[in-house]
Design goal:
By secondary structure, the chain is α/β, with parallel strands linked by helices. The chain has helices at about 1-10, 80-95, 110-115, 125-135, 150-165, 180-185, and strands at about 20-25, 35-45, 50-60, 65-75, 100-105, 140-145, 170. Helix 2 (about 80-95) packs parallel to helix 4 (about 125-135). This is RNase H type-1 domain-containing protein.
């Protein structure tokens, strides 16, 4: 039985062909389609000796914030590693919260370049782990958007590095200090 479990764990994850797209003209946040949620995530990196910030926010097809999180991350030598750590943490939280049918949205140029630069399995252990985590979701896709579409997650992440809000948490709804922006964005149409 242990041999079977080991063999299953070593087998490659089933290949799914998610829709990966770059939405170049989306300058504002758009609602996900009905039946889906959108998870915007971001990180904030200052320099190699400072703690980084990570954040995500999940919203439904009506634009309502379901929950959000902020996390103080360790120091990383560059913004790419901070972004990858934030993405991995986001994926793990979404799995733990049993979120599915999710659009992962980021405005990070580093994320896109990392997956373009390391397209083959085994070239980057962090990319391999992230890819495995993605395949744990039944239905998912990723979207790369302009910064204006990822404002809320970015502001939460920056609050860690700029305002030294180092306490990590998961909260329901959205942060109170961003409610007016979240309400404003919820009036935008579906993606």
């Amino acid at each position: 039985m242990e041999a079977e479990i080991w063999r299953d764990l070593q087998a490659p994850a089933p290949i799914r062909d998610p829709q990966v797209s770059a939405i170049q003209d989306a300058s504002k946040w758009l609602k996900p389609p009905n039946g889906w949620v959108k998870c915007n995530f971001a990180s904030s990196w200052v320099d190699p000796t400072s703690r980084c910030g990570g954040a995500w926010i999940v919203r439904d097809a009506n634009g309502n914030a379901i929950f959000h999180s902020r996390r103080s991350l360790q120091c990383f030598p560059n913004p790419l590693e901070a972004e990858l750590a934030s993405l991995l943490w986001t994926l793990e939280d979404m799995a733990n919260l049993r979120v599915d049918k999710v659009i992962f949205e980021s405005s990070s140029i580093y994320i896109r370049s990392a997956f373009s630069y390391y397209p083959s399995p085994g070239m980057s252990p962090m990319i391999d782990i992230i890819t495995q985590r993605f395949h744990g979701f039944k239905e998912w896709c990723t979207e790369l958007v302009l910064e204006g579409s990822n404002k809320v997650a970015s502001l939460i992440a920056v609050s860690v590095t700029r305002d030294h809000r180092l306490r990590s948490y998961v909260g329901s709804g959205g942060p109170s200090w961003l409610q007016s922006l979240i309400l404003h964005e919820s009036r935008n149409h579906h993606s």
